[in-house]
Design goal:
Number of strands: 14
Bound molecules: 2-oxoglutaric acid, fe (ii) ion
Order of helices and strands: EHEEEEEHEEEEEEHEE
Largest sheet: 8 strands, mixed
Low-confidence stretches: none
Length: 205
């Protein structure tokens, strides 16, 4: 099953089984989406992402930043990151997303893709620091990009386009049974900022 036209009724589950993905469409109008895109590009402490793969340190072109309630450390791709304290803009966005989705979050991972050449490979967000089956809200600003899910056993795929100012929620057993990715493309030259609001558990303040 492939969905190229985003289904913007957030009560529709885009996955056929083993998880829940809801697409809320553009929750922000054009002007506020442009505003947040600009503010995030310019005020977030963007860093090159580092990952350890087969014992080798890999540095990606994509930039990342990690914000949250004070004291959070988060391990992924075999490296540990410490959360920066929330900025006023991120807290504002978090409040809007929590209100619209009915979920709560204590941290946010941000990704900056400078152009379509940068993407993110197949993975699931099921690190031990993350609340099991907790909701992850993905907010996108900037260039529209395709986003895809693949079932770990059946290999079924589902995909959609994440629009400027849109929100996607992944929850229930989605991370256990499905991988997701942001495929690279040679036809997009504008940047995209993505925020994934998450819930971290078992932290040492
Ligand atoms: O950029 C995106 O839309 C997804 C990012 C993602 O999957 C992640 O940060 O774990
Ligand atoms: Fe992810």
């Amino acid at each position: 099953m492939d969905l190229f036209n985003p289904e913007t009724d957030p009560t529709t589950n885009l996955l056929p089984k083993d998880g829940t993905v809801n697409y809320y469409g553009k929750l922000f109008d054009r002007a506020s989406s442009d505003h947040y895109c600009d503010v995030l590009l310019n005020t977030i402490e963007w860093k090159n992402d580092e990952a350890v793969i087969f014992g080798k340190l890999i540095i990606t072109k994509r930039k990342v930043a990690w914000y949250g309630d004070v004291g959070f450390e988060y391990t992924y791709s075999n490296t540990t990151k410490k959360a920066l304290p929330w900025t006023a803009d991120l807290l504002e966005l978090k409040a809007i997303i929590e209100e619209k989705t009915g979920e709560t979050f204590n941290s946010c991972l941000l990704n900056l893709y400078h152009s379509g050449e940068e993407g993110m490979a197949w993975h699931s967000d099921a690190e031990k620091d993350l609340k099991k089956n907790g909701a992850i809200a993905s907010v996108s600003f900037g260039a529209e990009r395709k986003f895809a899910f693949k079932h770990k056993e059946s290999k079924e795929t589902v995909s959609l386009v994440l629009e400027h100012g849109s929100v996607l929620v992944m929850k229930d057993t989605t991370q256990t049974h499905w991988l997701h990715r942001l495929p690279p493309t040679k036809t997009i030259f504008k940047p995209r900022v993505n925020l994934t609001f998450r819930t971290i558990v078992d932290y040492q303040p």
